[in-house]
Design goal:
Cofactor: Mg(2+); Mn(2+)
Bound molecules: nicotinamide-adenine-dinucleotide, zinc ion
Strand content: 15-25%
Oligomer: single chain
Number of helices: 24
Family: Belongs to the NAD-dependent DNA ligase family. LigA subfamily.
Catalytic activity: NAD(+) + (deoxyribonucleotide)n-3'-hydroxyl + 5'-phospho-(deoxyribonucleotide)m = (deoxyribonucleotide)n+m + AMP + beta-nicotinamide D-nucleotide
Strand order of the largest sheet: 2-12-11-3-10
CATH superfamily of the largest domain: DNA ligase/mRNA capping enzyme
GO molecular function, one term: ligase activity
InterPro entries: BRCT_dom, BRCT_dom_sf, DisA/LigA_HHH, DNA_ligase, DNA_ligase_AS, DNAligase_adenylation, DNAligase_N, NA-bd_OB-fold
Radius of gyration: 35 Å
Helix content: 25-40%
Number of strands: 27
Length: about 700
């Protein structure tokens, strides 16, 4: 219950709500195709119940309240005893109140409680004759169920032959474990079927499906047992008189799977305080269970207590479901990102429309590997079922396929490593960059050598890969100590390209501090931030001497970013030391450290900042540059602006002072016009900067 319930205002809204709920429930029980997640359904039904409480004379006959399965299902095979639903509580207070009312009803304290997980599947009655499994029935409307005996043989945990030749009915829950669900999705995809939205839907659909070309395995958990008309008198008497916990032991001995075999076995408790302890334990284990639970069922354990309490038409009075928060929500898949891990594993990650689950906002979900996407037939724009419990990383269970509009788009798989651009090894389920652990090295060195950083010509990806593979570089600082012989020994490196490369590297030693900082790839800083840091401190020495407090004096660096940058620089110390030793320039031209009060934190003031022609102006550049500025990249333009004392920005806003609009300028030009911002051509701009332009 994370969102408050809606309030129904009038008859029409009430009738509408009833219609929606009945339709959803019908779809839910038939095969899991409900458009609502459970939380949404439950909120709707609570709103209906609230309205009905205020208008008891206008309750519609088809209302889902007070009925097993919301009145949405039927069956034609009568049950020997009704198969009921359970009443719900959502908190310790509600549970205590429920327990108190039960004890008032029976006129004595409940002798013992049984506490067990509420398995999130669907109810099934399994009839055994002389030890042989002969019939399977769904819950239906509670009084009669549907015969699903065709599923015999597909339910792990429900033996076709019991250990003893007894006649009785075992009741329990059918579900798919996480592993069974994955297999089901894969088989389903192979046969061209739509994916199931989640394990529960998969179980519901599978249990009722008769003529599938493939068989999907499910798991059965027994939670009850009762006599059939043909049961021997002895056994019938024994079953009727036994406590719930004894019945559970009995069916386990007969060979039926129960929660006794799991991390969350059924337990008994003497007091409601102990019950609460058990509930907490089960709830804490929820996230790591290989099957879904949506609550904890608490039952009066003794047959005598149960009998004294009796049952209503929808639920027994001697048992209650303590519901846990919904851990599944439907939201939209808006994208997939591909991230490269330390070992070169390329893992997809789902970007979601933010959704609140268990009190936290979920925006990303894990998709383990590309096969995970294929198996789920996921598409961008899909409505997806997202699962998050406890501390686990949220995951996408599957798309809610029947909500597709046709506008969904296939997910593009990368054909080159998104980090370093190398080939991808797709031979295993988990894709991997061919560079493996070197991927990060290749990516960071290529980045450092890039046009906007050190701008080392002739050092493309293939060369970097070659250098990394030969063990000649471990970071980009190693570039500056490469020898002619080392390079010549590489394949396809003749004397000319070797000398050219060495010259380009030598040249890179003269790059300004801002570009060296940028090449370091300090987390949280990009090109313009690197320039601001460089201009503020003027020398690498001053940058390194700055603590978090001093770092915050740089425009745009706040309390959060400052310590991260300082820590990163400490980590990068060995690389920086190597760069210094190799003679790489560590100063920012035009910036000089001042000896005034700021000197303590090593701050600098640049002449350009206070005197430049763009001093105090925020400048945006758009369109293609012409004239003297034609050859400059956008980054170089920004460098120029900042060098002239201005501030560069990539988007037009009220704070923009000047727009340099080149050929083909589009929306930024229009926006600047609207805002009445001064717009000039690249040529005019060049004139403005005449002194500084290269
Ligand atoms: N999404 C939708 O459109 C939609 C529609 C209808 C119902 N629902 C969901 O279904 C739930 C209501 O369903 P319900 O009435 O079938 O009942 P329920 O699931 O709330 O509780 C009763 C059921 O619990 C099960 N159960 C699990 N573990 C048990 C245990 N240890 N002992 C006894 N019983 C156990 C039994 O199958 C029993 O029938 C609601 O949570 C609702 O959100 C969703
Ligand atoms: Zn890579």
């Amino acid at each position: 219950m994370t969102t408050t319930d809606a309030v129904i205002g009038d008859d029409a809204a009430y009738a509408d709500a009833v219609r929606t709920a009945v339709k959803a429930a019908a779809a839910y029980y038939a095969g899991g195709d409900s458009p609502l997640d459970d939380d949404a359904y439950d909120r709707l039904v609570r709103a209906i119940a609230a309205w009905e409480a205020g208008h008891p004379d206008r309750v519609l006959a088809e209302s889902p309240t007070g009925k097993v399965a919301g009145g949405a299902t039927q069956g034609d095979v009568p049950h020997v005893q009704p198969m009921l639903s359970l009443d719900n509580v959502f908190s310790a207070e509600q549970f205590e109140a429920w327990a108190a009312s039960l004890q008032r009803r029976i006129g004595r304290p409940v002798t013992a409680w049984s506490v067990e997980p509420k398995l999130d599947g669907l109810a099934l009655a399994a009839r055994y004759r002389d030890g042989r499994l002969v019939q399977l029935l769904t819950r239906g409307d509670g009084t009669a169920g549907e015969d699903v005996s065709h599923a015999i043989g597909t339910l792990t945990g429900l033996p076709e032959q019991l250990a003893e030749p007894v006649t009785l009915e075992v009741r329990g829950e059918v579900l798919m474990t996480a592993a069974q669900f994955e297999t089901a999705l894969a088989l389903r995809a192979e046969h061209g079927g739509e994916p199931f939205a989640n394990p529960r839907n998969a179980a519901a659909g599978t249990l009722r499906a008769k003529d599938r070309a493939y068989r999907l395995e499910m798991t059965f958990f027994g939670y009850g047992c009762l006599p059939l008309p043909a049961t021997s008198e002895d056994l019938a008497a024994r079953l009727t008189a036994s406590s719930h916990s004894d019945v559970m032991s009995l069916i386990a001995v007969l060979g039926v799977h129960t929660t006794a075999a799991t991390k969350v076995p059924g337990r008994t408790a003497g007091t409601t305080a102990q019950v609460q302890g058990c509930v907490e334990e089960i709830a804490a284990l929820r996230a790591e269970l290989p099957f879904g639970i949506d609550g904890i069922v608490i039952k009066a354990d003794l047959a005598a207590d149960q009998e004294a309490a009796g049952s209503g038409s929808r639920a027994p009075r001697w048992a209650v479901a303590w519901k846990l928060p919904a851990v599944e929500k439907v939201t939209t898949l808006i994208g997939v990102e591909w991230n490269v891990g330390r070992t070169g594993i390329i893992a997809p990650r789902a970007v979601l429309e933010p959704v609140e689950i268990e009190g936290s906002t979920v925006t990303y979900a894990t998709l383990h590997n590309p096969a995970d996407i294929t198996r789920r037939d996921l598409r961008i724009g899909d409505r997806v079922m997202v699962y998050k419990a406890g501390d686990i990383i949220p995951r996408i269970e599957a798309p809610v396929a029947h909500l597709r509009t046709g506008a969904e788009q296939p997910i593009a798989f990368p054909d080159a490593c998104p980090q370093c651009g190398s080939d991808i090894d797709t031979s295993e389920q988990r894709w991997r960059c061919e560079r493996g652990r070197d991927c990060h090295l290749v990516a960071s060195v290529s980045y450092a050598a890039g046009r906007d950083q050190l701008d080392i010509e002739g050092l493309g990806l293939t060369r970097v890969v070659q250098l990394a593979y030969a063990g000649l570089i471990h970071d980009f600082a190693d570039l500056f100590t490469l020898t002619r012989d080392q390079l010549l020994a590489l394949e396809r490196m003749g004397p000319t390209s070797t000398d050219n490369l060495l010259a380009a590297i030598e040249q890179a030693k003269n790059q300004p501090l801002s570009r060296v900082l940028c090449a370091l790839g300090v987390r949280g800083t990009g090109r313009s931030m690197s320039r601001r840091i460089a201009r503020h401190f003027a020398t690498m020495e001053a940058v390194r001497a700055a603590d978090a407090e001093a770092m915050q004096h740089v425009d745009g660096i706040g309390t959060e970013k400052a310590p991260v940058i300082v820590a990163e620089l400490v980590q990068l110390a060995p690389v920086i030391d190597k760069l210094v030793a190799a003679g790489v320039n560590m100063t920012e031209p035009g910036a000089t450290p001042t000896a005034d009060t700021n000197a303590a934190d090593g701050a600098a003031d640049t002449e350009a900042v206070t005197t430049g022609p763009l001093h105090g102006l925020t400048v945006v550049v758009t369109g293609a540059m012409t004239g003297p500025l034609q050859k400059l990249s956008r980054n170089q333009m920004n460098e120029l602006i900042e060098h002239a004392g201005g501030r560069s920005s990539s988007s037009v806003s009220k704070r923009t002072s000047l727009l340099v609009a080149g050929e083909g300028a589009g929306s930024k030009h229009a926006k600047a016009q609207n805002l009445g911002i001064r717009i000039i051509s690249p040529d005019e701009f060049a004139g403005l900067l005449a002194d500084l332009a290269p």
